[in-house]
Amino acid sequence: MHKFWLERIKGKNLFIFIGISILLICLQFFSGAWKTMRFVNSDTIDITPYTQWLGSSIETNRGMLFYFVLPLLASLGGATIYNEDKKQGYFYLIYSKITIKRYFTTLITIVFCLSFLITSLVLILNLILNFMVLPAYNPVEALDIGLNFTYGNTLFPSFYYSHPLVYTGMYIILSALFSGLFAIVTLTISLYVENFFVVVSSVFLVQLVLMVIGFMTNIAISPAHFLMERGDIASVSFVYILLFYILSLVATLVFYVIGVKKNVIK
User: Fold this and answer.
1) Does position 121 have pLDDT exceeding 70, yes or no?
2) pLDDT > 80? residue 4
3) How far lies 115's CA from each of 146, 150, 164, 255, in Å?
4) Count of C-beta atoms within a 10 Å radius of residue 41
5) Is 134 helix (H, G, I), strand (E, B) or coil?
6) Residues above pLDDT 90, as percent of the chain
7) HEC states along the chain?
8) What is the dihedral sign for C-alpha 107, 111, 117, 118?
9) What are the pLDDT digits (tens) for 226-242?
10) What are phi and psi of 165, to 5 degrees?
């Protein structure tokens, strides 16, 4: 069955996910750190990979663009496999090999892990590119005036200054977790809706609405706002992010099980 699942996840949608992700992180690198490195000298210790990587730099807007379209990209990481299997008649083969329960358990696990892995790897790649051209100075709080690493604009700013690499890793993992969440939400929607464009764009549209509300209220309620280390939205709450994730995950799993029972198992 490993060969079967490998064949199911390989496809143009997956390569689009990977290709656009790499394109965006490279655009951010070349418009950010690559241009900035010529200004680096012994006095510019405030220019570091920690302030210029995609999740931190807001000067070029490429970072925000990546997080803005992340729900769309994550939805291509295998979230449409069920609808494709249904349309192409693969269920006849599946039923003869494995149980329905095993198929959908494996499917949701693969979809989550695939989006988690791709997002984490491309963000790590962007961070490595920044380390290749910029000196690895630890950020100094006194020199970061105006960079928005303040209480309310980001999570645990004191931890950022004491352990910047671990802090950056935390944000990469957080982004990957939400990418996995976006993917399985899309997968769950596909149990109820057959239209490809509706399925793929649903989570993105929800994020778009949350972003508009966030700009109006100056509260980071959209993942596109709170997944970046720093941004223009002032109010970032760890409790809100935690509750948002847990409630979204639980609701997704509940509707996933219901969708399988009502719309698949007849």
Assistant:
1) yes
2) no
3) 34, 30, 25, 20
4) 9
5) coil
6) 35
7) CHHHHHHHHCCHHHHHHHHHHHHHHHHHHHHCHHHHHHHCCCCCCCCCHHHHCCCCCCCCCHHHHHHHHHHHHHCCCCCCHHHHHHHHCCHHHHHHHCCHHHHHHHHHHHHHHHHHHHHHHHHHHHHHHHHHHCCCCCCCHHHCCCCCCCECCECCHHHHHHCHHHHHHHHHHHHHHHHHHHHHHHHHHHCCCCCHHHHHHHHHHHHHHHHHHHHHHCECCCHHHHCCCCCCCCECCHHHHHHHHHHHHHHHHHHHHHHHHHHHCC
8) positive
9) 898 876 666 788 899 99
10) -70, -45
Task: Find the Cα–Cα–Cα–Cα dihedral 177, 183, 188, 194, rounded to 10°.
Answer: 170
Q: Are 77 and 14 in contact (CB under 8 A)?
A: yes
- Between CA 146 and CA 144 the distance in angstroms is 6
Q: Where do we find the tokens 């496999």?
A: 81
Convert the pLDDT of each residue in 8-48 to its tens digit: 777 778 888 999 999 998 888 887 777 776 666 655 566 78
In which element (H, E) is residue 39 found? Answer: none
